[in-house]
Design goal:
The chain has two domains: 63 residues; 244 residues, f41 fragment of flagellin, N-terminal domain (Up-down Bundle), CATH 1.20.1330. 58% of the residues lie in helices and 10% in strands. It is built from eight helices and eight strands; from the N terminus they run ααααββββββββαααα. The strands form four sheets. Strands 1-4 form a two-stranded parallel sheet. A two-stranded antiparallel sheet has the order 2-3. Strands 5-6 form a two-stranded antiparallel ribbon. Strand 7 and strand 8 form a beta hairpin. Helix 1 packs antiparallel against helix 7, helix 2 runs antiparallel to helix 4 and helix 2 runs antiparallel to helix 6.
Length: 357
């Protein structure tokens, strides 16, 4: 066995104690950083692979959070659209029922009208019971116009297609619903399925007939007694206008009386056309309802995905606080013992002085 040499030049004990103290100090600093930050992988130098993966996942999670905001906006737009369409449906149903009521009332006087000009006030007609129903119908048309104009959220109104918007049919309304593999996912519905008034059209046709593909649910005409009643119409300048006619039934009544036409036949035709529009609106509401369901499901999935990504990041980089707490206490004890050992080692040269006395 080699003998242990004592030297006044080199203090081997102190060197060993100092190395231990430095190692304990380094571990203690690292542990304190983990305890204070809550992370065991805070920088790439801690663990390059985990740091890279977690950084990418954090970026993806931020994108998912932005998608969540977009989904919230989409849900609000679709809810507003559905509510507007449902209210229009109710108003059209009320108008249809009022037309049925008018058909059962005595016809207006047949001894002449004070004004034969379409859409102009007529005192003789206004004295009839039919005119009173007609006046109520006009109020419901006005309410429909108000619904269409006000069914907007964040500046988005799907009940009307403006002149600067895509041409119908074929236009799509897209909503952001997800983010995956660097791609934004969307759900789309045909703009025509929600459009009540298409201001981006230049031709009038009979609604739901050949050539009417670019018309909204309230565009075009209602036909009765060889008379066309525009709900909206294209004026001479090619601009879509809302019909402000105060009468819906008068023109038919005038021509029925003047030409001795079958009143029931033409009223039934008017009711049938209103029914067609009501059913079309119902079909459009089904499309919007399906989109609402899809967006809601995607919102739930996106939230679950964000939670799972957050958990995955935590498993990679979060510090085990119970473990680090126990380790911190142990390292603090080791540091104290290392300091004591260094003090003892530093005192050993003093023993050599005793040899020279």
């Amino acid at each position: 066995m080699a003998a242990i040499m004592t030297s006044i030049i080199t203090n081997n004990g102190a060197i060993a104690a100092l190395q231990t103290l430095r190692a304990v100090g380094g571990d203690l600093t690292k542990t304190q950083q983990q305890v204070s930050s809550g992370l065991r992988v805070a920088t790439a130098s801690d663990n390059a692979a985990y740091w890279s993966i977690s950084t990418t996942m954090r970026s993806d999670k931020k994108a998912m959070s932005a998608v969540s905001d977009s989904i919230g906006f989409a849900k609000a737009v679709l809810d507003t659209t559905y509510t507007g369409m449902d209210n229009v449906r109710e108003e059209l149903t009320t108008i249809r029922n009022l037309v049925i009521t008018a058909s059962s009332l005595p016809p207006p006087p047949t001894d002449g009208y004070s004004n034969w000009t379409d859409y102009q006030p007529d005192q003789i007609y206004e004295g009839s019971q039919v005119a009173k129903v007609d006046a109520e119908i006009y109020q419901h048309w006005q309410q429909i116009n108000s619904i269409v104009e006000s069914s907007s959220f964040g500046g988005v109104n799907l009940l009307k297609n403006e002149t600067n918007e895509p041409t119908l049919p074929g236009a799509k309304t897209e909503f952001t619903t997800g983010y995956a593999n660097g791609q934004v996912l969307t759900v789309a519905i045909d703009t025509k399925d929600t459009t009540m008034i298409n201001y981006n059209r230049t031709v009038d046709n009979l609604w739901n007939q050949p050539g009417s593909d670019n018309m909204g649910y309230l565009d075009g005409t209602l036909w009765s007694a060889n008379v066309i009643y525009p709900i909206t119409y294209v004026d001479g300048g090619g601009v879509v206008q809302k019909n402000e006619n105060i009468y819906t039934l008068r023109n038919a009544e005038v021509r029925i009386a003047a030409n001795n036409l079958d009143r029931s036949y033409y009223y039934n035709a008017l009711v049938g056309q209103l029914d067609e529009r009501i059913q079309a609106v119902v079909s459009g509401m089904s499309v919007v309802g399906s989109a609402q369901k899809r967006v809601a499901l995607q919102d739930e999935f996106n939230n679950d995905l964000m939670d799972n990504v957050g958990k995955g990041i935590g498993r990679l980089v979060d510090a085990d606080m119970e473990q680090q707490s126990a380790k911190l206490a142990a390292l603090q004890t080791q540091q104290q013992l290392a300091v004591q050992s260094l003090n003892i080692a530093n005192q050993s040269p003093q023993a050599i002085m005793q040899l020279f006395r």
